[in-house]
Amino acid sequence: MNVNQSAPPVPPFGQPQPVYPGYHQSSYGGQPGPTAPHIPYGAYNGPVPGYQQTPPQGVSRAPPSSGPPPASTAQAACGQAAYAQLGQGDVQNGPSSTVQMQRLPGSQPFGSPLAPVVSQPAVLQPYGPPPTSAQVTAQLAGMQISGAAAPAPPPSGLGYGPPTSLASASGSFPNSGLYGSYPQGQAPPLSQTQGHPGVQPPQRSALPLASSFTPPSSGGPRMPSMTGPLLPGQGFGGPPVSQPNHVSSPPPQALPPGTQMTGAPGPPPPMHSPQQPGYQLQQNGSFGPARGPQPNYGSPYPGAPAFGSQPGPPQPLPPKRLDPDAIPSPQLNELPPQQKTRHRIDPDAIPSPIQVIEDDRNNRGSEPFVTGVRGQVPPLVTTNFLVKDQGNASPRYIRCTSYNIPCTSDMAKQAQVPLAAVIKPLARLPPEEASPYVVDHGESGPLRCNRCKAYMCPFMQFVEGGRRFQCCFCSCVNDVPPQYFQHLDHTGKRVDAYDRPELSLGSYEFLATVDYCKNNKFPSPPAFIFMIDVSYNAIRTGLVRLLCEELKSLLDFLPREGGAEESAVRVGFVTYNKVLHFYNVKSSLAQPQMMVVSDVADVFVPLLDGFLVNVNESRAVITSLLDQIPEMFADTRETETVFAPVIQAGMEALKAAECAGKLFLFHTSLPIAEAPGKLKNRDDRKLINTDKEKTLFQPQTGAYQTLAKECVAQGCCVDLFLFPNQYVDVATLSVVPQLTGGSVYKYACFQAENDQERFLSDLRRDVQKVVGFDAVMRVRTSTGIRAVDFFGAFYMSNTTDVELAGLDGDKTVTVEFKHDDRLNEESGALLQCALLYTSCAGQRRLRIHNLALNCCTQLADLYRNCETDTLINYMAKFAYRGVLNSPVKTVRDSLITQCAQILACYRKNCASPSSAGQLILPECMKLLPVYLNCVLKSDVLQPGAEVTTDDRAYVRQLVTSMDVAETNVFFYPRLLPLTKSPIESTTEPPAVRASEERLSSGDIYLLENGLNLFLWVGASVQQGVVQSLFSVASFSQITSGLSVLPVLDNPLSKKVRGLIDSLRAQRSRYMKLIVVKQEDKLEMLFKHFLVEDKSLSGGASYVDFLCHMHKEIRQLLS
Ligand SMILES: [Zn+2]
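ok -> structure tokens follow
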């Protein structure tokens, strides 16, 4: 039986499938990507580097249409080798061409050359009074992120000058002009510093590493890094603080007395000969790995080679000590005590998100991510990369907090690292990547394990000559049905493995049989019902007129699939205030007919025929209706609205039509009219910071949950567009959208003229996006772990099935796993996510995603295969759910405790013994503190005075469905300087850290977090720039709060507007621009997003939080 054999749109395997027409390619985020040629399944016929559970030993077969199979036995064997290496949780001491790109090892040294070593134990008292900041700075400066510091202390006496003097040194640095314009994938200009030792700040010139190891007298703490961004290579960390136009910075961070932060002992000196140029790259005090090529490693992934250790061959590692930082450094105790000068903590000495993002882009953005190897950590979400499916699901579909799971629950409990996967089953793909193939097994349906019901996948093992297969999830041995039988090659692999997506790919779809359909009946195509509030407020703001006008054209863009000429989706219309109006728009009518339902206590659908129609057939009647609606209600005095009956009516209409579908609700006010689901204004800001604060997030009536449950049963998804002028109780109104997999959009104080671009852009995207309906998602796991908790917009009536009335390509479900048995290093762990859904053409399908993870018996392996962005996604969702039941302070405290436990466990079990004064962070988690602090001080967990209860409920609801890229930028906004890079540069300017200290009053910045977009204008920005962008003569003439830039014909204006468009295209919601002038009132709003700074609502600065975290860790360790 061939996959191409029968049935609907099943293009030949091996050829690109049509993409969904409704899919906006432009909205796929990311930076301009590598222009890798699109080869659908290019690697498919090629060597398959060991993705099978049993490593391939035989000949790979090409798809029938292709040429002779290129994969040789040798190649397969090569893959096997790679597999074996990774599969055993082993560590590789050096480059290996067979190994897929590995995340930087947990033991990767950071900032090695400069990491100081102290001989005296110190006490960190971050919140103590008098600042001996020198010590803290020193400690922070020396903080060993990866735990692998290679101490390269500068010559004594150097580098202890005050920041300003060093800053001026940096100002004179010849390369500083290059700052901000690195070509991607190349070594930063910093590397040129080798050629200009004289220009460097003194400490830098003292960098040769070997020397730094030998003379104890030279082993001072790493003071240079305290002085701010000194070197061009550090440019991504922000503009040099010494710039004349530097904005006043917050008060210096004081270092409490006795505080010392020291570098950890590093690996033995032989690894760092002074001739190793690669280390020069790290001299800037940043905590990231070197950006350029590292010694002894020629690969484009500078960070990669040192997996588990330093790359240098002569490295005398004890066999069991995998971490360089675990190697005692003989120098440790020979070094002199730190100088006790006072310094403020240098923000550049603590891990920089910008640096980490930039390093990953440079290291991993140029090559495709091939999913053939188990347990590979993918590039960061901020890196633009292509994916080649070779047996595991793309990270666009599934990202994990760790790709190496502890074998036992004891280990997992010890580490406290949450084991979770963020799954986006219908994720949109970039145009270069093919959508999952649809496999049709005819009447017999998809092949499954008889016991655990897992679907056929590449990890199933065929035995007994191919007559049976052993389930990779539950080990049950199943018969292969005759029609599916195929011979095995001498390696035990089916000879048709590469002809079948389900035997060779991580993601694919099955056509579902009637057994997978409700009532054993194939579904009808879904319907969209537009339900429009026509009360006084909706009319007055211009909403109704705007919406009706837009719908006339938007209805031509309903989602289609498979190259269909027109959408199968039918549409219907309802308007409402205190009563409901249904419309008959049957094509045979000359004019639409209105039917009023005034009994809102028990709504019924007054018509079936003519309510849900095909757009093209009824176009004239629909257009007439949309023309009439604004007129009909133009003079309305009705201010009261109902809400629950509207949803009820829409759901009943879908039920009557026996189809799934989506309701688009456009609603303006708190539903106070007498009806089910009537609400009262219960907003009470006095509850904030009390035990009753949680009630603000809870729905005020259970009626909406009940309603949502009915909607889910019907496959009725609700998207809610809110246009409130005051409190509308988002916490309650969003219950149904939340439980039905829908979306909520909120436009406070909407005025058509000001907000139409944002609203219409969101609406267009929302209506056009591909949605799966009436969906059930199930996550199966191999023996030893199981899915125990779920976060997202869905409903669950049992403990395993995630029910989604609708699921679109933006929504994620975060799943947490727990152990229920011991895992095995050799077999690893498997996840299979199966999503049963009805496509927008009405086809019932199953989408399958498989992912194999490694398992480890050493905690170090866990820590070096974690992904902090995904951890933060999970932790934010966990915390945001927690506020429903616990006081916000409790939620915050437990986050801090968990983070401290994670880091303390690393310190205790994976890092080398070192002074208690050191803060040691695992390389993969060095951003955990800064990101966690952003979660802690977010509006939900620590609201400022200007944040409304509705805002908090809204954000809480949004974050629940966010993917990893969205949470990343939402919690740590992107801040882009606009005039630093050359005007002709077409790439996005390198971001700077989100802190006021990074703002230069002579520059202009864009800040975005996926929801908000600001253009900040410095007070001393050049007049020419002001003229070019705003068409006014001076700074003072710029209108504060402006939301549209004038369209001017000059390079700067074009560039900035182009950049704004590109940022918007990357996000799932339109970001309205707000122009903010320095020292203007609106600036307070903007500063709220400078998340590294102390916030007005009391949120800690990054530096303070890091100190606090250090204290917590020390308490746990002592
Ligand atoms: Zn099974």
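Confidence is low (pLDDT under 50) at residues 1-12, 14-343.
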